[in-house]
Amino acid sequence: MIHLSLSPNTEKDDVILSLQKLFSGGFSNSRCQLQLRQKLSSLFPAAKEIFLLNSGRSALMIGLQALELPPGSRVFLQAFTCSAVPNSIVWNKLTPEYVDIKKEDYNLNPDLLPKKPLAKALILQHTFGQAADLKPLLNYCRKNELYLIEDCAHSLGASYQGKPLGTSGDLAVLSFGRDKVISSVFGGALIVNNPKLLKPIKKIFQSLSYPSIFWTIQQLLHPSITYLARLSYSFYLGKILLLLSQKTGIVSKAIYPEECYHRVPTIFPHRLPEPLACLAKHQLAKLKRFNQHRHQLAAYYHRFLDNPLINKPVFNPEGIYLRYTVLLDRPEDLKLYLRKHGLVIEKNHWYTKPITPSLNSSLASYRTGICPVAEEVCKQCLNLPTHPLMTLNDAQKLVKIINRWRP
């Protein structure tokens, strides 16, 4: 059984640490926050300062707020993205302006940007840990005086032409969500490269409080519960444990219901609590191992997948491959075939809609037909697992079964 979204980074030592933090207190300490910022600074040498937030959404929210753009100002972003990105724009009373993607790497297509933009900023997503085409986009932003925000939620540790992603824009956003590159269950960071933005961001950050202790406890319980759920998932006990934990509020979901309607939950934005900073710092020490493993599995998929019905992305040697995503007609048929062979691919893959999750994407200014390539990719994509719990033997078995599949 393979699970992509069930805390795929959580190992035994993470469970032990989360329980230690749960029972030892220390919520008012700030030592882990300081150490986490220091470790991140070594990865982002261009950063003037790093601010720790309780989610990537919070980081993007205050980053956009610090730009001090007039209400209604347009912000470029790609479709085929998480609703957290357009939500953060809308929550700042700004207007999302969508740009279609390239099928080769699922990133924003620079050729589709208007020559004379009305937008004031561009949010650049490095999808699945593959760098977007930075050089022309940087030139475009400089020429047209646009702020550039790098969305590195998928790409911590990846690079572009030898330069770490997140070091080229005015700002960069990280996410430490449960299914991201490293995980503190909830968490994120705002990397500030443009010194002119430092003062307004400091002012906003100083006005923020920490989440409630109850909310922090919810996140600290998550590694233990999901770890137990994984062990018993084959017997349905894991699924029952997860459902009961979420319904009773023992743990929180990754996405709050309000976000599906593009409304802002009260939990955002807040600072990153000390216990979650400790979890993030602990996982950051595993970053190199995690990313080498992801890259190894992605390279294996790329080399040995030879089913003629499946289209593979261009392979990027500098990518980290949070997911290895292929395209095919009727991907649900392949998922069903895999399930019959004892392999489960996540139910809600990235991304089933141009804006995911969303119950009314028009609230985020998206209309069907704006980005036809992204809409097509949403119907055809299938994520293959690269997470730390997926072994090379698992990948070999998966590839063997996929290569045999014919609808």
Number of domains: 2
Order of H and E elements? HHEHEEHEEHEEEEEHHHHHHEHEHEH
| Main β sheet profile | 7 strands, mixed
The CATH homology group name of the largest domain: Type I PLP-dependent aspartate aminotransferase-like (Major domain)
Sheet with most strands: strand arrangement: 1-10-9-6-5-2-4
Net shape: globular
CATH third-tier fold name of the largest domain: Aspartate Aminotransferase, domain 2
In the CATH hierarchy, what is the class of the largest domain? Alpha Beta
Mean of all residue-level pLDDT scores: 95
Structural class, please? alpha/beta
Could you give a short description of this structure?
The chain is α/β, with parallel strands linked by helices. It has 14 helices and 13 strands.
Description:
- The chain is of the alpha/beta class and 407 residues long.
- The protein has two domains: 25-206, Type I PLP-dependent aspartate aminotransferase-like (Major domain) (Aspartate Aminotransferase, domain 2), CATH 3.40.640.10; 287-404, Aspartate Aminotransferase, domain 1 (Alpha-Beta Complex), CATH 3.90.1150.10.
- The chain is 39% helix and 13% strand.
- The chain has 14 helices and 13 strands.
- The protein has helices at 12-24, 31-43, 56-66, 84-91, 134-144, 198-206, 213-231, 237-247, 257-260, 274-284, 287-304, 331-340, 372-380, 392-404; strands at 49-53, 74-78, 81-82, 95-99, 121-125, 147-151, 159-160, 163-164, 171-175, 188-192, 324-327, 355-356, 381-384.
- The strands form four sheets. A seven-stranded mixed beta sheet has the order 1-10-9-6-5-2-4, sandwiched between helices. A two-stranded parallel ribbon has the order 3-12.
- α5 (134-144) links the parallel β5 (121-125) and β6.
- α3 runs parallel beside α4 and α11 packs parallel to α14 (392-404).
- The mean pLDDT is 95.
